[in-house]
User: Fold these one by one.
Assistant:
Number 1:
Amino acid sequence: MADKIMSRGGFTLPGEAGYEDLTLELAEKWGADAIRDSDGTVLSEAIISADYDIYSTICLVRADNDWAKSHRDKLQQNYLMSYPVIAQQETVEIDLLSGFFREQFEVNAKDDPRRWWQVFDRTTGEEIPKDRWFFDSATGTVKVKDVKKWHKITVNFLVYRIWEAISMYNHITNDWGDREHQMPVDPIYPETQEFMLSYLQKWLDDHPKTKIVRFTSLFYNFAWFWGDPAMQRFIYSDWGSYEMTVSPYAMTLYAKSRGYEMTSEDFVNGGAYCSSHNVPSERLLDWMDFMNEFVIQFGRKCIDLIHAANKTAYMFYDDHWVGTEPYGKQFKELGFDGLIKCVFNAFEVRLCAGVRGVKTTELRLHPYLFPTGLKGEPTFMEGGDPTLDAKRFWAYIRRGLLRAPIDRIGLGGYLHLVQDFPDFVEEIERITGEFRTLKQFHAVGRPYTAPVKVAVLTAWGSLRSWVYVGHFIPGMELYEVTESLAGLPVEVTFISFTDIMNNGIPEDVDVILNAGKVGTAWSGGDHWKNEKIIEAITEWVANGGGFIGIGEPSAAQHSSQYFQLSHLLGVDREIGVTLNKNKRTYSVFGKNHFIFKDINEGIDFGTDIDNIFIVDKNTTVLAEKENSPTIAVKKCGAGRSVYLSGFRFAPYNTRLLHRSLYWTAGQEQNFGPWTCSNVNTDCAYYPANHKLVVINNKNQMENTKVFDANGKAIDVSLDANGLYIIDL
Amino acid sequence: MADKIMSRGGFTLPGEAGYEDLTLELAEKWGADAIRDSDGTVLSEAIISADYDIYSTICLVRADNDWAKSHRDKLQQNYLMSYPVIAQQETVEIDLLSGFFREQFEVNAKDDPRRWWQVFDRTTGEEIPKDRWFFDSATGTVKVKDVKKWHKITVNFLVYRIWEAISMYNHITNDWGDREHQMPVDPIYPETQEFMLSYLQKWLDDHPKTKIVRFTSLFYNFAWFWGDPAMQRFIYSDWGSYEMTVSPYAMTLYAKSRGYEMTSEDFVNGGAYCSSHNVPSERLLDWMDFMNEFVIQFGRKCIDLIHAANKTAYMFYDDHWVGTEPYGKQFKELGFDGLIKCVFNAFEVRLCAGVRGVKTTELRLHPYLFPTGLKGEPTFMEGGDPTLDAKRFWAYIRRGLLRAPIDRIGLGGYLHLVQDFPDFVEEIERITGEFRTLKQFHAVGRPYTAPVKVAVLTAWGSLRSWVYVGHFIPGMELYEVTESLAGLPVEVTFISFTDIMNNGIPEDVDVILNAGKVGTAWSGGDHWKNEKIIEAITEWVANGGGFIGIGEPSAAQHSSQYFQLSHLLGVDREIGVTLNKNKRTYSVFGKNHFIFKDINEGIDFGTDIDNIFIVDKNTTVLAEKENSPTIAVKKCGAGRSVYLSGFRFAPYNTRLLHRSLYWTAGQEQNFGPWTCSNVNTDCAYYPANHKLVVINNKNQMENTKVFDANGKAIDVSLDANGLYIIDL
């Protein structure tokens, strides 16, 4: 039934000195074509000399601690907001680092505090004039005078980071004792750049056998602030936030480039910092753009050195990825040859597959070959079941691979750990086989995709395509829905409010999807107060567009509605301002609607937005919970809308979404071809080579019917987690 | 054990012509001293001539429909906001009454629409200039030109009410067929006043035997807007809202009096109208004050006529009560002799008992002698159990009567209905006995009250003492907590933010309580952005005050905190702007805290505010739900705070509140005297005559210990719903 498939290539194996036989044996069994080192492992001469591409990791910002120690003013910096103090008197004294991890941060007393810091009265939200406070570097405190009694006072201040965040995490997690703390240097300074380039050149000279240079990302870590361990270990972390790119030097360059100055409060933001969850200000986007320009410009110089040494450069799309912005417009100018993403979910597959400007995309599979997983749970040790873990993650990942091509997969960690888990070795062999099959099919031609294109509308737009704040966040509507989308046979694009303002709604888009809680970047926050946005979407829907709103779509406290598109959605939310207005009654239409077909279980979104009420007699409620509609649909002129009070990635909900996309696009008559009757299964048809792939997402046997282009049903019986190929 | 108690007096019986024997027999059995008529009943000569005070009802604004019909421009008015229309073109036409009940409202085409109406673009929230729209009185529509396409357009317009709300409700509920619709006339016009006074004088002359004239309130009904019955019967209702007092004439008088004009939008408020749930604007409070002045001034003239006829005047504190404001500063100037409140709950008892300026307070008990109750449930008919209903309501009401004196109780409705329910007759006899006992004890001296005075802080303050928007609203934190307070031996006062601004926190207050959801009048809304309020409360707590916050206390989206008193409460709420800030961890202290004593069951607040996190290492979490603290306490300088994530009136929660009041007041060492060990029981000690009253709030036997002033326990065993008196 299945064609002969490739049995080698596209696989990166973590080698390990001292286990040369095992390394070469598994390289053969899994069909590896590249062998890598990992944090904590090295490759021996026997491995390096075998016939595999060699693949070495490097992280330039923490590469040479001696240089860092002798250039402490070149360490990376960031702003912190001191813990609030309530003024008991008209003078307050604030110990800046109180509550913070003093091993991570050191107050920057070098750059003039009066120039770069700000003190705020957080009761009123107003800045306290600079002549009312002074910094005492001997005690690390700020004294503020003439404050209003009983008000809350905070200081925005600059710190050097004296312990690089990722190595700090590894150091503390693995209890590395008195091993020296690595410090991150900032490439923004010409002197640092000069050092880094010379370091890199020497490293290249020292690694003649290395074919692929893998950057543990580039220069700036995602934001990660730690607290006094006696009080609170972790204070703030955001995979997309640019907090850690800040320094007076960079801010000075920025002011020259942009013609205005950033302030500390632009980054501190009342203590909320610049979280990806929040709607970015124009100023923040401008700063990100500026840092992106810098990272690309200097990163390019590093990559040019690598290319000059006849090696290729890959980036690990994690850790110090900030400033590279793989979905930014300039990314391709960096010149990376490959991009590696570690993956648990389908959305991460699509994230990696969707990046333009690299030749090679690679997935790093979980579980890593470590004794424990990310949350400390046992993996390759007693109590762990790495084979089951691998199956489970693969079942998620494979949904994405059905839709989008990836060039390589691989593992990381300590190879010797697999010796006690022969089942795992077999499972990886099975996985590599499935991976190569799908890769081969994609190479011939893209799979059937429905005549439905959905645009996910957020405040970030395409810059945060597929990924929002890093790993999957359970309960965050947009992650949940994106994981469903990642395996559906529809086209997906990501747009921002600014895109709509500048270019209107793209002509090829059939459905706009907006999902999230009020005020977040995902729902859109104050962008919904922009009448031009309301006009554009309302007109577009009236003329036949589809709109799917999830959670608090279009929500903003503005004028006389809360959902600013309540006239399209047919529902709004009672947030306490119209409590005495009686709400329209409705009857629940039930499960005969098109979007409910195939769904035999009760819909469960996990958490629902409550107090929803209908605002239009033409709103059809399909489901409710505690007298609050949870699913409502409406026809609006030639267009249609679907409202869902929440979303959770689950087979039935994915089908509900799939059908909602067709229905809102007015394409329900075209639903059928290349769909499965059983919602626990998925299929993809590759018309160029007449292959139909059916997968079972469940760890148990499943039977399903697959419908072909003519509506003919093909019965398929699938093993647990099985993949089945049919020639048509 | 019990003293001999009064067996007659303080009871108002509804008499019924045709049932003279029954009337007089029950008057004797229940110890009535007054006999009343009811809506739908009359008293015959035999009843009137018996030795009872006669008590007749009158409602002046709907008294003479012929006069109303011949003075249609004197009908009462109000503003409505038309249902929103989305502009598909640059011109829209809006059918004003579409969606409204056309039998209740008639567009006022007499007063110049251009002068009194407004048209709004509700997408932007901006008014559309008056020269862009015109009203077509022939079609009842407004045409608006040059609107922005796809925007939402509404009209604020004036209507006459052509069917008086309460009689409309009775008419439709009781299916009165083609009986003429009664129309409400507006006493704001001199001509109406003249007519009303002459009507009243004639009525007084025609009712020589009437001793007590009971106004079915005075002139203006609480707001009650009905919709097109085919779409939505009820649109808006608010027991405290002044919507129905509006007219161009009144607005003109107002402008002269206050020096500025009210606009339609002051009343329409984006379609939210002027709900009691919302923080009142200064303008709205000013309008209420103006109408209160008018009602008192003209109401006084009516009452003077009654007094001149040697009769007394009582007001029924419901229906047309708007403008009388029994808790307003001017109420006593009205000159009412008595006030009647129908009651289901203890807070209504306290509401009635707390009014100053009347000699007599009276409660109208439920169930009314009607076949069905307020919600249509069977009462005096097959399937009903009026005896159980009476027991149940009495158990609630009695908690309030333990603390505050009331002069009279009574019933309403059709007396003959009790003939089939002899148990009910016995139950009322028991109730009247208990009522007279408590009245007698109060007459000797007030019961023991704890050394704790709590001030309930809302945007309304004392104007809405005890009652907020009418009947009890389950799930509304402040009603739930007020029902608990109504039976506790503490002093209760009600203050507003303006009170604090003008006078500071009253010296005799020990604890401030703030309960409700963000943005509501109960929590306080934008008042919490006022730094003076924050300063005042923070300083006061630091110096020893107590603060109890329930739900979203002090909540406002302002500066860097959501609970503006998070520094006192020790907790704040994640509303989506600091999602990536890790929250402090805590351990749950558990049930050894003072406020948890006596409580053997799990605390259940019904609905909780979620996503609470602690902001201070000194916050002690006593309970949590899904990783969100539900009960937290904190010491703040010399003061203390308690945070509760919700509240539901239940015996254990009442005890939790009782103890929280003592703890935050720093009075825990004084807890004990005159408390019960069993939370299902309450007690009150009347020191002036050495009587201890113990009541069982449950419909089952309960045993309890009562602790006297020396901490000595007195064991008491109580019948279901029983009341027990101990001489000390």
Number 2:
Amino acid sequence: MRTKFAVRTLDITAGVSVVILNEEEATENDIFAGDRLIVDNGGKQAVVTVDVSKTIVKRGEIVLFADVAEKIGAKQGDMLTLAQTGHPASIEFIKKKMDGGILQENEIDTIISELMENKLTDMELASFITSLYIRGLNTEETVALTKAIVNSGQTLDLGVHPVVDKHCTGGVAGNRTTMLIVPIVAAAGLYIPKTSSRSITSASGTADTMEVLANVDLTLEEMKRIVLKTHGCIAWGGGMNLASADDRLIKIRHPMRLDPKGVMVASVLAKKKAVGAEFVAIDIPVGRGAKITSMDLANELAREFVVISAKLGMKSEIFITYGRDPVGCGIGPALECRDVLEALQGRGPADLVQKSCKLAGAILEMGGKAESGRGYAIALQLLQNGKAYEKMKEIIEMQGGNPNVKPDDLPIGQYREQFYAQEDGRIHLVDNRAVNRIARAAGAPKSKGSGMILYVESGDKVKKGQLLFEIVSESETKLSFASELAKDINPIELEAVILGKMGETGVFEWKPETAR
Amino acid sequence: MRTKFAVRTLDITAGVSVVILNEEEATENDIFAGDRLIVDNGGKQAVVTVDVSKTIVKRGEIVLFADVAEKIGAKQGDMLTLAQTGHPASIEFIKKKMDGGILQENEIDTIISELMENKLTDMELASFITSLYIRGLNTEETVALTKAIVNSGQTLDLGVHPVVDKHCTGGVAGNRTTMLIVPIVAAAGLYIPKTSSRSITSASGTADTMEVLANVDLTLEEMKRIVLKTHGCIAWGGGMNLASADDRLIKIRHPMRLDPKGVMVASVLAKKKAVGAEFVAIDIPVGRGAKITSMDLANELAREFVVISAKLGMKSEIFITYGRDPVGCGIGPALECRDVLEALQGRGPADLVQKSCKLAGAILEMGGKAESGRGYAIALQLLQNGKAYEKMKEIIEMQGGNPNVKPDDLPIGQYREQFYAQEDGRIHLVDNRAVNRIARAAGAPKSKGSGMILYVESGDKVKKGQLLFEIVSESETKLSFASELAKDINPIELEAVILGKMGETGVFEWKPETAR
């Protein structure tokens, strides 16, 4: 059997590790499409899945997709060695979990290591996640999984104390508390090396929003230098190789919408542990449109966060918050930044300010910068006396942005459409999911200046013809898409007086907005 | 957003349905690697997964892998429409099963339909199979799954009675009973439209072995014509689109080695129901190296086969057989054919003849061609009086082979190595898995004349220097690979007199062959 093949590269980022062999030659060697082999480029190895082709690959040649070529540093014309791969040890442990067994620490370590070495297929990982969802993880398993995820990537050791962090389980539009909490607690003298994510399905992630003001794509070394100098930063977590296994697990969990509780807890806490956090505040918004919709699940999650944090040597406080409505007025990167900058100057949306100061206050108390019960007041004071704003300017400058940017300087889309109340009433709901969809249709988060402005919130009394919200876009076409969508999936519901009616059908017809 | 794209085809059979878009253009349209979209070529649709590339795809272009292009009949330069796909309805039902629910018939139908329409990803299917493995299927679910699999493909209606069939769960090397049972029961006047599989991991499948004598790649129409004329055939099932969903489920189950009981039962019985079988004999070999290794599982499976068959209007009899040793002497397509032709002429390995006649006898009794308790004797008689051989010649001729082929005419590899007993003793085990691996290393099943010849079986007393087995290959290189492997994983174990010894380590050391 031939074991050396000449590399031809193909510029396709396939997401999966695929190589292509000549079909005839592969068959002769008992290799078939879907088989898993090891490619070795002078010691740099990857586990790959085989594709075959009759014509595009000649005998003696191997075609590599871009991601595989990069992983093993292979260039056009290199000679690669191809070898059979053994059965990954993880399969047995995944099967054990499937059968209801309890996984030992070394078994979980093996699964995460083999995941990182690309030895497991997406199908095997899907099977693992499904098994964890059905069978659950006990405390020891969750702790072991968290540690394994921490060990799968780089870690940050600032060498100073106390290091604090915060997290939000997500789903609430406009919820940019991080951009107030970081400067508040940093101004108080705590260290907060905050990493945030970019949006996947929402109008903007904290990293997308912060990017309007500064560079968020930092290396771990840059983050360390900035935090040691200014006590805080707001960086994009995806580029830093912290808790790397988590990024791969998310690729499986996300498309299947599968979030086993223990995996969610391990995923969050591993990211905190990896940056050396000692005190952590976790925000769990609960309500329709938020990621967590049931109070029972929020309670269970909260308990797990507390217990597992303690086992990892961190102290966490968990806050279940009202997640049914968006926070702030602007939705979309630049519009959210405008709210944040206003708030840092003592103005800004009341809900955003209050929620951020509550969470920041809890962190100040845990970190020893406020007596019990005084955290909120101190946080609010740091916001009102301009110290948080000064701190934010330092952070923006250290991250390569313009510290003197004013809210009105931020480029906001020029194409706009306003929506008005059709009748008198009280606002029943501002729907997070609808708001996110409309803002995305308008171009957010890629188009920084696009999104929505909300002029009302739940409970407000409105008159017919009163302005409810405005869609903002940098593209005329996208504005018209978003406006059509807003007419279709009305994001703001008035409280219904008549809840339903029964006509000649004899069936009670609910008004669509209440039946949704 | 652009919705029309010009096709460029790429000759790669990716196994998964992937298209490649220009990265920049995709990003502008909020499409990312891994997203699922529908491509439409004038009404012919497929659900595809998106890849992106910076350079090989121009804006306005879409690159299709060979399998996708074929599926929707797209050619270079065609204009395709790209559309968002909704969330497949199956996801909710897969989640229901995950959560421990019982699936209704229409829910199972939806999953199998969406599977056939390529609307489900491999990850979603892996999650489904994992859920079925953990949660199990009740009788109604298994019946519904079987029916859905039958309906996913073509079916055979011979219009004659009685139609019979047989199945073996597999794993036993050389177990070519089908090639004796089919001519025996056909000679007795029953109709047996037998479809068999090719080998995946064993030395040979029945279809691989029959292919030495005749063409096995028949259409459903050809099979119908042959069976109506001769009462029997031995065809490859993979080319006929019978119970098609099963082939796709196997693609998921096989690499994960996941065989939920209900799915295994549905898979087997759907193939029988699809050819219109009324009476079915099922052989479950149990033992080390066989597919089913535990008697408990064999018992459970047997019960399910009986119950589910009845619900589908078939009568099944289940035989748990000794599966620890290979059957017959030859291992590999041509060598197994030699055993079969010898047996049809009243000679041949005793174990092969006996097992085949026991199973054929049961079918004769179910099908009304033998009184209760007389089936075995009649089957043996049909073999000994040459009627089964005459029938086999008819079948071979109808399937385009040479009916007059003699055992010695079959081309057997010229490269051979013999292996001898190292000491006196009694044969303890002939290891199915080792035998399969060695025969495959020698070239089977692709190389028809390669494999092994076994000269002893379990229980035989042997003298030092006595011939145990011989490796046969059509390639000198492969012979040497196979010989090395045979020395490494000795396929024939002598009964150990000393089971283990304790030395100065104070630990009892088991002899490797007994500890295996």
